[in-house]
Design goal:
The chain has helices spanning 2-23, 33-45, 47-65, 71-85, 96-117, 126-170. Helices cover 80% and strands 0% of the residues.
């Protein structure tokens, strides 16, 4: 059940990021909904599921927007896996840890993208990229995360309650 929900969340995030949120840019920046969903899946269901969700979200992203195939799959796999490590530290109504890790994940994501898409091509405008792309995206992503993470967490709670109820009925 969670696998199906993860797939649906990834597809919805991808569609929203590539359609609706691309219309609501702030200074040409859109929030990274895929990153929020992959990180959330990692927090809520662990390293393995975070890794798998990151892989499929990254492949989807690579197919439609990738310059180097496999780059986004690799980035999102690491994000999902790394955030899954912190699953045991997540408290039910505490949003500080997930937001902090989403910030770190988005900063690392921005730096890896800079390295592979600009630095290797000889573009040395790091400070410009940091101030005009990475940091604004981090801020926009965190603002959206304040709404999206609790929503995903609520979905996971309902699924867990449903699965527990179903198990009790069968057993």
């Amino acid at each position: 059940m969670k696998t199906v929900v993860n797939a649906i969340l990834i597809i919805i995030a991808f569609l929203l990021q590539s359609t609706l949120f691309s219309r609501f840019t702030i200074a040409g920046i859109t929030p990274n909904l895929i990153l929020i969903v992959v990180a959330s899946i990692g927090f809520l269901s662990g390293r393995r599921n975070g890794l798998i969700a990151g892989f499929f979200a990254g492949i989807l992203f690579d197919v439609f927007f990738g310059f180097v195939y496999g780059l986004y799959a690799c980035i999102f796999m690491y994000i999902g896996f790394t955030n899954g490590i912190f699953q045991k530290l997540l408290f039910p109504n505490d949003i500080k840890l997930p937001l902090g890790l989403i910030v770190v994940s988005d900063i690392l994501y921005g730096h890896v993208c800079y390295i592979f898409m600009f630095l290797f091509k000889g573009d040395l405008g790091y400070v410009y990229y940091l101030l005009n792309i990475i940091l604004p995206e981090v801020v926009y992503t965190v603002v959206i995360s304040c709404v999206l993470f609790p929503l995903i967490q609520t979905i996971y709670r309902k699924i867990s309650a449903f699965e527990e109820k179903e198990t009790d009925t069968i057993g």
